[in-house]
Fold these 3 entries.
Entry 1:
Amino acid sequence: MTMNINTVLELAGAVLGLAGLISSLCAIRAVRDWRARCLIVESSLSAVRRELALVGSISLKTGHRLKRVEHEYSGVAERVDQVELRGGSQSFDQAIDSARRGADPGKLTQQFGLSRGEADLVARLHGRKKSA
C-alpha cells in the first residue's frame, strides 16, 4: 500500500475534522456546565435578596421599638439623679417631719425631690389630720 499525497491529505483532513468535532463537543459541555452554574447563582441571589429584605424589615421594626423604649424611659436617668441627690432615707425622714408640720405634697416634691406618688403617700401617712 503506497501512500500518495491525496491519501495523506485525506487522513489529515479526517483527523482535523475529528479534532474539530471533539472540540465542539467539549465546548458544548462547558457551556452547559456554565449555564447550570449561572442558574444556581441566580437562585442563590434570589434567596439572598429575600433574606436581605427580611433583615431590613426586622431592622426597621427594631429601630421603631428602640425609639419607643427610649421615649418611654427618657425620664429614668433624671429620676435616678434625683434619688441619688436626695441621699436616701434622710430626705424621707425630713419629708415626714415636714408633712407633720403641715407641708402639702407639692412642697414635699419640690423641696425633697420626691415623686408625686411618694409625696402623696408621705402626706397621707404622716400629714396632719384634717378635721371636718
Note: The radius of gyration is 44 Å.
Entry 2:
Amino acid sequence: MRTMLEVEEALRLITDRVQPLAAESIPATEAHGWVLAEDVYAPISQPPWPRSPLDGYALHAADTKGAGWDMPVTLTVVDKIYAGGVPTVPVRQGEAARIMTGAPIPDGCDCVLRQEDTDLGTERVTIFSEVKPYQNYCPAGEDFREGDVLLCKGTRLTGRACGVLASAGLLRREVLLPVVRQVRCALFCTGDELVTNDTSALPPGKIYSSNAAMLAARLAELGVLVVRLAEAFPDDAHALAEAIRQAEEEADLILTVGGVSVGEKDILHETLPLLGADRVLWKARVKPGSPLMFSIHEKPILSLSGNPFAAGATFELFGRAVLAGLAGCGDLLPVRTKGILDTPFEKGGGMRRIVRGYFADGRVTLPEGHASGQLASSAGMNCLVDIAAEKGPLAAGSRVDVWLL
C-alpha cells in the first residue's frame, strides 16, 4: 500500500486498477446517458442532397454576373420547391426555381440567391445581386457522409449526441447500440453523529447527513445509478464490512464517506481488513481530503473524508476518475484550465490546496468560507482552484489552475 502520494500519482494508481465494465447492446431509444462501447458509423449522408440554407431562388451563378440594383437581370421561374418537396423540372441557363429553406436544390443549380435581393417574382424574377458559384449552397454530406464515424467509442450519449443519432435515422428502438453498462454505485456515509433528513428534530450531538444528499445528486448528474444509499451508517466496522459485501453483488463502485482518518472511530482501517480488501493507497498530498483511501475487493472501494467540502472536492478529483475508468468515458473527468483570481486567497501552507470558486470568462471569484467543514459557501460554485504547495497566499490577479465542474 502506498501512502501520502501526490494527486497525479494517486490518480495513476487508481486508474491503473479500474477496468471498463462489460459492453452490452440496448435499444437506441433507451441509451440516453450511457457510454458507447464502439464507434457508430453513419448509414446515410446528411443532408442526403444539396439543400438551400435560406428562402430565395436556386439558379446558375453565371446568370447573375454583373447584376445589381442599377443593372438587374430577369430570369424565368420554372419551379417552386418547399422543404419536404422535390424539384419537378430541370433548371436550365436563364431559369430559376423559387426555393425555401431546407428544400433540395435542383440539379444544375450551383447557388441560391436570397429573396431580399429580388422582386419576389412568381413567373419571372428580377434579381439585383450577383452571387458566386456554391454561395448559399449546402452540399450533400455537409454534416456527415455515409460511412463516417458518427460518434466515437467512449462518447456519453447526452442530448446532443442523441440528436446526432436521430439526424442519421439511428434513434429507433430496433437499432441496438453497443454501450458500456451504466455505472452502479453504493454510497455509505458513516458516523454515529449522523441522522437522516427524515429526523425533524435534531437530537443533541447529532448533525444532518449532508454528504449523502450531495454525492447521490452528483452521481445522478454524472449518469451514475445509485443502487444503495446509507445516509447515516453507524461506526461499526463489522456491520460496514457485511454491508459492503452485500452491495458488491449489484454495485460496480463502493463509495464510503467518513471513517478514514486516524481517530478511534475511523472504522475503514478495520473494515477493509475484515473484507480482505487490497488497500492500494491511503492519503494524498492535498488539503482538504488528505485521508483518502482506495481499495480493491470484489469491486473498487473509494473512501473519502467525512468533512463536507473535503468529500465533495476529492470526489470530483478521484471519484470521477474511477467513474471514467469504469465507463470508459473521458468526458466524466473534470476539465482543467487556467484562470485569473478576482479575489485574493490569504492562506498559505506547505500542502497543496483545493479551493472552491466561481469561474466565468477566465476570471475566478472565491467565497469567504474555505474550511473543509463548510458547505454553504459551495452553493453556486462551479470550479475548484488548484493551489500548489508553498504558493499561498495569492493576491488578486494571480494566475491559477482551475478544475471546471
Note: The CA atoms of residues 135 and 279 lie 64 Å apart.
Entry 3:
Amino acid sequence: MKRGHLSSWFTGVAWKRLTAVEALPHKSNQHEFDGVQKLKTLLGSERRWYPGTVAYLMDDDPEPLRADVRLTWYDARERIPKRSEWRLYYPTTFVSERYSEGDLLIIARRANDTLLVVVAEEGSTIEGQLMWLFGLGAIDHPGFSVKGEIESGHLMLDFAANFVLDLIGENVDHTDDSCLDVMLRLFGRDDPPPDEFSEYVRSTVQGLDPVDDPDTALLVWMEREEVLYRTLERHRIGDRLSAGFRDVPGGFFDFSAEVQARRSQRQNRALASHFEHLLQLHGVDYGRSTVIEPEVDVPDFVFAGAAVGQLDLWRKPMARVLAVRSRTGDLASTGGVSPKSGIDSYLLTLEPGLGAAQMTALAKNRITPVVPVGLKPAFQQDSSVLVLSAGEFLKALGTIEYPRRVSG
C-alpha cells in the first residue's frame, strides 16, 4: 500500500445506508442492493459476475463475519432500455442474515477486479473507522454516493489504515526482509523481549524529531514496529507450519489464536514502550504499573509522584493516570480509576475513532482519549469528550510539580 492513500488496494468505493428491502429480503423476496446510475461508474454498464467477499462487522464481535461469494451486477429491466434498473445481487449467507436497516453498506472494488461488500452496524466504532479509512462523506440522502478514485488526505497513517484493513479481514503485507538477518542475529528465533525490540525498532528510523513532533514519531515507530515484528513473526510461523500439527484442526486453530493474541499484546507493549521513551525525552517524571485502587485494573503510567501501593492518590492535586491500549475493546478494562476518585484518567490509543457508545462510556468514566494528532479528526466531534494529541498531553504533563521520582 502506498503511503497516505488506498488507491493501490481499491480503485473505487460506493456507500449508503441499507434500506429495509435490502437488509430484510423476506420483505420483498429480493437479495439485492438497489443500484443507481452513479453505481455504473464503479461496476460498469454491462451485465457481469464479480468474485467477491461479503463481511459484517459489529463492536460486540471483534472478528468479522466473512464469506466468499459471486455477485451479479445486472439490469433488472434490460429489455426496457428507458426503464433501466441496475442491481447487485448477493446470495443468502450467514453474513447477510445479520444485515439490519440503517447499517452502513460499502461496496469497494479491489485493484484485482473483485469486490468487497462490507456492512457495519449502525452507530458502531467500526462504522466510523471505515468511513475514516475510505474518506467517506456524510450520508445525507438515501441513495449511493460513489468515489471513482480513493485517496486519503491523512499524513503518516499507514499503521492506522492497516489497523482497519486487518479488522475487515483484508490482509496487507506488512513485512520487510531487509532487516531479517539482523533481527535473527539479535533475537534468535524466539519472541523478542518487547522493550528491547522496541528500542531496536527506534534505532532503524532516522529523520524524526520526537521532541518537537512526538505525534509523528509515535506513529512512525509503531508502523515500523509492526512491519519488523510481522517480518520476524512470518519467519517463525513458517518454521512452525513446516513442522506440522498432530491434531490438524485443533492444533492449527489453537496456534492461529495464539498468534493473534500475541500480536495484540505486543502492540500494547510496543505502544507503552515508545510512549515511555517520549516521556523520557520530554523530561516527564512517571511511574509504571502503580496500584491505585484495589480490584481495579492497573494503569500503565502514573504521574504526580504517587508511591507504589498508595491508595489515597486521589487526595493529591494534579494526579493523572494513563492506560495504554492499541485497541480499546472493552472500555471497562482501561486501567482507569473510578470517577469518584477525582483522578484525571487518560487512554492512549491508536484506534482511529470510537463509536458513540464508547465515547459515551469515556465521558461517563471521565476518561480523556489521547491519540496522535492525525487521528483526532476520526473521533466524533459532536461528543462532549475532549480528545488530546500526544503532544498536547505531554505538554499538559509539564504543568505537574513532582515531589519525587516514582518507583514502579
Note: The chain has a mean pLDDT of 76.
